[in-house]
Amino acid sequence: MRASAGASLPRPALRTHRAHAGATPGWQAGRDARTLAVVTPPPLLSGKALGLLCALALLWGGSFLFVGVAVREWPPLPIVLTRVGLAAVALWLVVFALRLPVLRDAAARRAHLGMAALNNAVPFTLIVWAQGTLPSGAASILNATTPLRGVLLAHLLERDALRRNRRKR
User: Fold this and answer.
1) Which residue ranges make up each domain of the chain?
2) With CB atoms 3.0 to 4.6 Å apart as the test, which of 36, 40, 51, 66 could cross-link to 13 if both were Cys?
């Protein structure tokens, strides 16, 4: 199963039932007074999904711990080079093991280089540099809140970005 970059959590299922308007709490009135809808919560994580989520949290959080230790002895750039280099080797092993196609044209290489710089080299260098004076826990929290700050920044820079997709009532 592949997830796209814009994938979100599954939406709750909406079931409609014919009932009277005085039904149990939690029911929402549908289009007419006789049709009621109940929102079913999404399913809980399976054991495998929960295990993968915990492994991801351990890897992600552990990297801040290791960087916090390494930054005492090494300058930031060798730490970033080691981290990004090991990740690149691991990803290339996955690409070859799964026999995934590799785009080799100039446009793809430019796009990959730009993404590598903007998503890995620059942020990791800044995080490692900051961890010279900042505790690992604070660095991990600041990193984890990046998507929230990105949404707020997008809202401030483009006022109607959040309003454009709203339904008119």
Assistant:
1) 7-40, 62-110
2) 40
